């Protein structure tokens, strides 16, 4: 499954929404919107991140936290390259790392 952040990131790669739908179908992926629980978890983890990071450090965007929280609340794992970040903020989340 994918959340709205991932759908929005993938969208520009396709000329028409139907092409994106076909791509997702071929991969057996389904769009599942976030819920209140995942949105609140994302906000809490983003607050923790902002409190921890040095002022000059590179900034993450809230979309990263929405994706992690969506996976933790609504899926059984997350496919992601960034192992450290998701492991730090979403401790109960199982990661598939390519």
Secondary structure: elements and pairs:
Layout lengths: L3 H7 L6 H10 L9 H17 L9 H13 L3 E2 L3 H7 L5 E2 L2
Parallel strand pairs: 1-2
Helix pairs in contact: 3-4
Task: Please explain how this structure is put together.
The chain has 98 residues and is mainly α. The protein has one domain (4-96). The chain has 5 helices and 2 strands. Strands 1-2 form a two-stranded parallel ribbon. α3 crosses α4 (62-74).
What is the count of distinct domains? 1
Q: Helix content range of the residues, please?
A: 55-70%
* Main sheet properties: 2 strands, parallel
Low-confidence stretches: none
Number of helices: 5
Structural class of the secondary elements? mainly alpha
From the N-terminal CA to the C-terminal CA, the straight-line distance is 17 Å
Instruction: Indicate the overall shape.
Output: globular
Number of separate strands: 2
Give the strand content: under 5%
**How would you describe the oligomerization state of the chains in this entry?**
single chain
Mean model confidence by pLDDT:
93
Q: Helices and strands, in N-to-C order?
A: HHHHEHE
Spatially, the strands of the biggest sheet line up as: 1-2
User: Over the alpha carbons, how many angstroms does the gyration radius reach?
Assistant: 14 Å
């Amino acid at each position: 499954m994918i959340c709205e952040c991932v759908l929005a990131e993938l969208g520009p790669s396709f000329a028409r929404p139907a092409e994106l739908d076909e791509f997702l179908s071929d991969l057996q992926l389904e769009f599942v919107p976030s819920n209140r629980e995942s949105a609140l978890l994302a906000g809490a983890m983003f607050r923790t991140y902002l409190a921890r990071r040095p002022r000059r450090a590179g900034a993450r965007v809230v979309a990263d936290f929405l994706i992690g929280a969506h996976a933790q609340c609504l899926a059984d794992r997350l496919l992601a390259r960034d192992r450290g970040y998701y492991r730090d903020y979403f401790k109960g989340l199982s990661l598939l790392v390519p």
